[in-house]
Every structure is written in structure tokens, then in C-alpha cells.
């Protein structure tokens, strides 16, 4: 990694952060807002065909903003209010750095990294443009490029590597996570602060199918949504900040993935609620201003995505996972009633199973919120919103179940739908979203139960009795302990995964040869002794990514005649043997009279020439 490049990215981010804080953005939301603003700027340059220039201009503009602020600060202008350092800041910084270090030394292994998410970053980095109709290496051409643009911006300066990509995405996630501390009524209270820290750590339990050592966006979607909801709450009485915030976060979410529509709907509904609740002026002014502000914000938020949709339709004749009513109609007509009923039965069985991680998460959220409501209402004799929030979150779960079932019957082949392919992965997103929402409402409800409501008087004497003081201290200690332990569990889990994956195909390929960075149509055969890797196209996708070509093919079965074997091999320009394959080795010895074991070989007419 280039430390000078990393410093440049950090200085640029600080420049954006300070500038938008001067515009009134909350310091806890400033980091994620700065990243999203840069993503949208990168997106405009990418759509105009000026990606490389845009990455440079966006980065240097941030540095320029920082320099201007420092100069103004020298003359006593442009200073920012210091928010203080709190206990959760130490937790975020220390454990965040440890996690980043582990991720930097983590390989990419998950299938979807090589079918799209890592491939698009590599494509953007080394071609400097969005994929076109002839770039067959990109399969999912309808997927928007938001996270890929941010990762590309970072690796452009720090140097391209899988670890740098993971750190870039983790930085986005960590910045969005930091926003939740904005909801604390009193940030000096360690109990409520570390409940939120624990929530961050626990959320990774429900992301276990993906983990942070992958570039998939199933965690990115809910955590950005959470930050968006925090901003709506914080800016609810500042209409201009509120509209700008919703437009930026909604536009960014829609550019993360097509399925972000559900999460944007959550933001938009809450936005409309706050507009109506906090509207000021005469009734006839509210009747005009609320719909107008709502409509303008929605149009601005949708504009980048509509631009992307137009780009997809005009660039590609057909695109995987493209949003199309005609495609959905065709899929539905192809699915018989019997198939839909079978999928429905399997779906119901899954959501009712206590072995389902998402179901366990839903139960956990219900138990905690109901328990909190019961104790505060009957023990402390205080009204609170926890029961109402619980009902609302369960309604969100039901809606998401409906949208997920619709995806299975409308967008997915029956063979995949009947096994509920990716169910836990998809459900984890909404479990994480509702977990954070429930935790944020809970900590505010807990804070209102404290004996001393005057923040300036909250000290060691600000307790009702010695019993409540001891209870508070014990609870705080437990929250700190479990918040650290659970985060270290995720860190150690990632380390274990890295060790466990040492024998996987991506690691073997990395030992066989160095990755290529020049896009080509080179025909490559990857020899894989594992039929599952070949049948699932994992080997082919991986080789396409690693050697940056759209002509890589995986093959496991070489039980053929000598003449057929020779014809087969001569169809390729290179052969890669990442792991010893007995049949292939024997056939090479018989046909070409050579001994091969592992390595990268160039195909010649009279045999294989070892290149690495």
C-alpha cells in the first residue's frame, strides 16, 4: 500500500468533512456524508466518460478545501466546534484500526466477488471507464457502481490490492456506523454509548454469511440507511438540511444496488412523516410547501438512478437483473401455480424455523424491545415508544418478506428459488436495519429513565440511590465488556476465515502466478480438480477476474482421447494448473511428453511452456 496515497485520501476526506460541517452538517454524519458526496461526484465524471480525470479532481478538490480551511483558521476564521472525545470514540478508533489491519491482509474468496463486485472495481481502475456493450467480462451490467467508485478512488491512490479494496469498503461502513452516536441524548453516559457499540458488534453476527472480508453490499445497504434515518431525525427541524440529506443518501443508496429501492422507501416514508410533523406556518402554506418539498427532493434523489437506467438501456441490449416490468411478466407467466405454491411453502417453512439466523434476529429484537417497554412502563412508571416501534419494525419485516418472496417468483429461476438461494443473506440486511433502529430508540428511552435529567448535574452523585448507582455501573461494565468481546469475535472470525481459506482456489491461483491488469480477450484454461468449482462457474469467474480476460474457462474432466485432449488444449493461449490434477498431468505426459504439476503455461503447438 502507498502510504503517501493513503495520506492524500485522508487529507481529502478531512477537507470534505470540514467543509460540509461548515454548512451545518452534524459532525457524526459528516464522515459518511463526505464519502457519499464524493461518490456522487465520481459518478457524474464516470457517466461523462472522464473517470480517471474525475478521481483526481475529486481527491485534489478535497485537499484544496482542507488547505483553504487551514488558511482561514490561521486568520481566526472557519473554526469548527470541538465536540469532545467520548468513550465510544476510543472504541471506534482502536477496534476500527484493528479490523482494518485484518481486512488489509484478507483475500477475496466469496463467489460474488468474482462474478461482479471485485471485477467491476478492477475494470474501473485499469480502464478508467464504465463497461460497454463489448466488455463481456462484466456480467451484471445493470448493477450501479456506487461502492465500486469509492473503492476505485481509494485504490487509485493507495495501489490496487484486494486488501486495499476491503479497507475502502470498511471505511464506508465504519463512517456510516459512527452516525448512530448522533442520537444519544447525553454522549458522556457510557451505558447508552456502549449499547450502541454492542449493537454495531452484534450486527456482524447477522452478516455472518458474508462477513466484512467481501465486497458484497448486503451490509452496506442497511448501514447507509441507518445513517440516513439518523440524519432525518437530527435535521427534522431544518428543512433545507433535511431535503439535501435525504436527496444525497437516497441517490447514493439507489446507486449501490437495484434492490436498494426498499431501503430508500424506508427513508422516504420517514422523511414525509417528519415533513408533516414539523411543518410550520399557516395550514394553506403547509398544504403547498410539504408536497412541493417532498416532490423536489424525490426528483433530485431519483435523477442519478434514472440516468443510470437510461445508460443501461442505451448501452446494453440485455442486462442481468435489469428492472423491467416486461421481464417480470415473462417470468411470472413461465412459473406455474404449482411452482409458486411450492416456493411459498418452502418460504414459510424457512421463516418459521428457529434454526434460521434471521428468525433468531427478529425474535431477539422483539424480546429486547418488548422487555424494555415492559420494564420502563411498569417498573419506572414512564411512557415510552418502544412498543409502538416494535410493532412498526415487525411491519417492516412483513413488508420485506413480501418483497423477498416476490423476488423469488419474479426474478429468480425455479431451480434457485425452490432452495431459497441467498435467503439468509438477503434477510440479514433488514435484520441489521431494524436492529439498529431498535437500539437507537432503546438508548433514548433508557436515557429518559435516568434519575437526573439535567445533563450538567450528571456526575457520581447524580443517582437516586446507591443501589441504582451500583446497578448502572455494573450494567455499563457489562456493555463495555461485551462490546469489546463481540467486536474481537468478528475480528478473530475474519482471521480464522482467512486461515481456513488458505487452500481455496483464489489462494492457490495467487501462488501460481501474478494477476494481470491489462484487459484482454486471452483464452485461458484453468485446470481444477474440483467439479463443483467448474459446474458453478466459480473457476471461470475467478480466472476472468485474476487474468482480466473474458475468455477464461474452468475444466475438471479430462478423460478423453489423446487427439481430443490435444485439440482441447490448443484452443487456448494459456493453461493454469493451480492445484495438482492427476488426469491432466498424465494426459500432458502422454500427449506432449512433458511433466507438469502446477503453474502458468503458455500453449505452443508442440507443448506447454512454463511461464511461472
TrEMBL record:
Chain segments annotated as coiled-coil in the UniProt record: none
UniProt keyword terms in alphabetical order: Membrane, Transmembrane, Transmembrane helix
Keyword Transport attached: no
Taxonomy, superkingdom: Bacteria
Membrane-traversing stretches: 46-72, 84-104, 164-184, 191-210, 216-235, 247-273, 285-308, 357-376, 388-410, 431-451, 471-488
Protein name (Swiss-Prot/TrEMBL): ABC transporter permease
